[in-house]
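job 3f2a | input accepted
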Amino acid sequence: MSSTIKLVASDMDGTFLRDNKEFDEPRFKRILHRMTQQGARFVLASGNQYIQLKQSFPGYADTLSYVAENGGYVVDSGKLIYTAHLDEKDLRAIYNTVMPDPNLYTIFCGEHASYIEKRHATPEFIGLVKYYFPSLEIVDNLLEINDNILKACEVMQPDDTDSYYQMLRAQLPSHIIPTTSGHGSIDLILTGINKAFGIDLLVKRWNITPKECIAFGDAANDIEMLSYVGCGYAMANAMDGIADYAQKQAPSNNDDGVLEVLDTLF
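job 3f2a | predicted structure (266 res):
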């Protein structure tokens, strides 16, 4: 079967990574070597920033490809091939919707860094999000940033994620959509931008087909990707309903489910 697989896409948090944010790197390198020999490529597909994703693969990060920012930033082996920017009107609409709520913490994610307003930049909050936003800069006003903004990330108490998702969906312009990994954060991105969109750019670039792709995911922002590929794997720890969009199930992230499946395929 492996000879028919040309692209393997995996979400990171709750999927490729264990809950402690680690993975079996020697095992992955062995699998990656076999994949390369058989003409398959590995793609990290995540809502996280490109700079953060690269840090998980020191020394060989540029041999991989990335669909970062939930499809808003696509990199093929070190070469940027696509970015999706929110324009000034979009950013102002987001800002005016979320800023009055003291329980929402807003981060604007740009091409060069991520940004948070000084009033939200408590040591506790910075400590909470620094792993996901290693290039986080503190600013006076998010609307005065000199950077191309790819998405807005809203952070809230995990139990409030669904209610804020519904609120944002109702109050924001229809071309700005909320998407969530279900872990106390919601990304606001342009409609049509998702992990499947980014993977499709790579599929066309590499002259392959969706049927030659497999993907692994655990959350709502993986649905389009799992539906797009020839065979989608929902993790055993996936959110309720995600398995409905996948053809197969992989062991949990803490049981190295992605690597377990890939070891049987390559």
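job 3f2a | Residues 33 and 44 are 16 Å apart (CA to CA).
job 3f2a | closed
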